[in-house]
Structure formats: C-alpha cells, structure tokens
Amino acid sequence: MIEPRLKIATCSLAGCFGCHMSLLDLDERLFELADRVELNRSPLTDIKELGECDLGLIEGGVANVENVHVLLEFRARCKILIAMGACALNGGIPAMRNQFTLRECLEESYLRGVGLVNAQIPNDPEIPLLLNQVHPVHEVVKIDYFLPGCPPSADAIWTFVNQLLSGQPIALSYTQIHYD
Amino acid sequence: MSEQPSFTLDGRRIPFRDGQTVMAAALAAGVYIPHLCFNPEFAPHGSCRVCLVKVNGRVQAACTTPAAAGQLVQSEIEELREIRRGILQMLFVEGNHVCPACEKSGACQLQAVAYYVGMLAPHYTHFYPRRSVDASHPEAVIDFNRCILCELCVRASREVDGKNIFAVRGRGINARLVVNTPSGKLGATDFSVGDKAAQVCPTGAILLKHHGYEIPIGQRLYDRKPINVVGDVAQLSESRGGRRHD
Predict the structure, then answer these.
(1) CB-nearest partner of B115 from A96, A143, A174
(2) Disulfide check for A85: which of A19, A71, B109, B221 has CB 3.0–4.6 Å away?
C-alpha cells in the first residue's frame, strides 16, 4: 500500500525568499522529497487557498497586517508549524527598522530618498498596512519547531525534514546550526 | 609528598592550586565550561551566569567559586544546559543581535556559546531596545546594540591600558555601557586599536574599522568547530583568527 503523502505548505512573510532558495538548493533531493510530500499553498505552486496541511514552513517575520493574516491562517490549518530562518526566528534584517518609528522609515524611503519625483508615502488601500514594529513569528502564534540560519543550508533543511518525517527527535550537526 | 588537591568535574578528576576557582582549575586541565564575562586574564566578574555549575548539588558560578578538595562539580548536564540556553536567549532578546548583519558573526563568542549550548531560537519576546552606534573614533566603532555588559572592556581599559575609558552606568535593565568623556563619544578619548580593551569584547560591540567580512563564510573561527575546541576569540592570537595581540 502506498502511504498518503504528507501535505506541506510554505510562505514567505517579511523575508527575502532566501530560505525558499535554500529549499530549492535541495536539488536532486527534491525528487525524493516529492515522493513523500505534496506541496499545498506555497510560492512554488499556484494554489491560492491554503488547505488542511501536516506541515507549515514559515519564512520571514511579521511586518504588516497581511503577514499576520497569513500566519494565523497557517497556524489554523497546519498541524505542525515551523519557523525557518533568521527573520522568522528573531525578525532578522527587516526588524532593524524597529530602531526607528514607522514614520521615520517611510519618510526616509519615500520623501527623502535619492532621485524621487513627486515624493509621497504610498497609501493605496491595496497595500497592506505596516505594523509599527517587525516581530518574530513566535510572538504572534505558537511555533512547534525552529530552524535557524540566514538562510538555513539545504543540508540543514534536509536533515530537519527527514528527522521530522521519520518521527525522530531533531538533532542538527554543529555545522548545520548557524544564525547567519 | 602529599598529592595535589582535586575535585571532580563531570566524573573527571581536576587538580587545583590553593586559591584557584573551579573555572580556572577546569581551564588549566583543558575542560571547557561555557562562559562570557570570564576571561582568564582578569579577575572574575560573575555577572553573566553562563558558567553556572552544580557544586555539591548547589548551582553556583564556576568563575567565582573557589575550588575545594573533594567537591563534586557537574557542568554538562541537561538541567544546566537548559539554564544556560535560557540565559543566552535572554541576552539575545535584550539587545539587538542581528547576526546576518554583524561583522563579528562567525568569530563571536556570544554566538559560539549559544551554538554550544544548543540555542535554536530566542524563545522570549524581543525588547528591540533603541541603542546608538558610535563611529566617532577613526579606527574603532562601538555598536551598543550588541553590548552584553560583561564589563571586559571596562576592566581591560582600567586595569591593563590604564585609561579608564569605559564604565557601566545605571542599574538593572537601565544599565548600559558608557564612554567616560563629556560627549560620551569614543572619538574624544585616547582609545587605540592596540589597547587591551579593543581585543576583549566577546560580541561585535567593539569592532575595529576597515576589517569587516575579511574571512569567507565557512572558514571563520567557529564555522567548523565549536568553541570548546577552538577556544575564546579574545584568547587566540591574530595569526590563529583571534584578537589577542602578543
């Protein structure tokens, strides 16, 4: 009997997609992974609605209201939620804006930036409102597993996913744990 | 001739000389006890608490506990690893430690000790304190975001350099590193890159300018081997990737 494949969803909140690039760095191991899992909503698929999933991989921190919405949805639909990469774990580079007020950030980018014409702060209603500060995902929802790195290496992701899928405790080697 | 007195550390016999601390004796015997504010060249400070060990069942800082004959000392037990992880996590959320954007990353003692104790994520709620960067000195920069208040620069400047450039002002959560000048700027002091105070910072708080990102990722001090094998960055000579001037 063929075992049903586990459903995995992934998303990038306030991240740079570097963690997803690292996921793609699994290279030929992706074939092996594809035999065991089925991708649901993810930047790598065209599925718009998140279904009920076994695993959710979250890249990036929480910087705007859309990030909050997506994160809450992932928590509600994924049995196990994994924070992947520095931004999800501690806010990362986007959280460096927490040193300034939101107004200061917007004015610096959109009013005082170099080479601006008709400088104005974007206020289209379709643009998600920014939060005052960027937060790690564990400050918004319960996270089951943390995978550090900027990004975590493909080897670290592979070790992690294999141990998780086979029900072993997570034990990354020394060189697979790094914060940068 | 009587045998040298000794205590037991995780089942191993550690000899010591009169007046030595548990930390000093362990270090001399080549046994690593994780630490941040401790540097063997200075009097122990006992403030970071990362070196907590169990001495005869009681949790104490190894760097300030005098060694005594027959002590039963435990260090590498899960209970202590958990406490140490918690301390590291609190240090990380209390400051702004953005490893991907730090020149010290890969050769940082704070990061290396966090790896050693198995810290995967900061766990606690981040403070994101608003702290400044002082780049007024031509050769060095102080990023207060990364200061963990170990006071090693304070001690080094006062005791070795004879300059008394640094101090810690305030108490509790308001404690912060300050520069002893009216302007509070490092550029107004006689701080120099040859100073001991320029070599002892366990984080990226005090950095030398013009030397960022010189070693590629994968070849940095703690990239391949953990700190208990490699040693403290401040204790290694420059030729071995450390900061110590011999």
Answers:
(1) A174
(2) A19
Q: Backbone phi, then psi, for A24, in 5-degree steps?
A: -70, -25
Nearest CA of chain A to the CA of B220: how many Å? 12
What's the complex ipTM?
A: 0.93
Nearest CB to B99: which of A86, A133, A138?
A86
pLDDT tens-digit profile of A62-103? 999 999 999 999 999 999 999 999 999 999 999 999 999 999
**Total domains in the fold of chain B:** 2
Query: d(Cα A128, Cα B79) in Å, to the nearest integer?
Result: 44
At B3 the pLDDT is 78
Distance in angstroms (rounded) separating the CA atoms of residues B135 and B102: 15
- Structural domain includes residue B1: no
Task: List the domain range (segments joined by +) for residue B11.
Answer: 6-76
Give CA separation, B8 vs A20, B54, B134, in Å: 48, 11, 46
Name the residue with tokens 């998303």: A11
In a domain, B242, yes or no: no
Q: What are the chain B neighbours of A99 within 8 Å (beta carbons)?
A: 96, 128, 130-131, 145
Paired sense of beta strands B52-55 and B58-61, if any:
antiparallel
Q: Is B213 on the interface with A (CB under 8 A)?
A: no
Q: What's the CA gap between B67 and B61, in Å, rounded?
A: 12
The CATH number given to whatever domain includes residue A27 is 3.40.50.700
Query: How confident is the model over B146-173, as pLDDT tens digits?
Result: 999 999 999 999 999 999 999 999 999 9
Residue B152 or residue B245, greater confidence = B152
Axis-axis angle for helices B78-94, B109-116 (nearest 10): 150
Task: Return d(Cα A161, Cα A167) in angstroms, integer.
Answer: 10
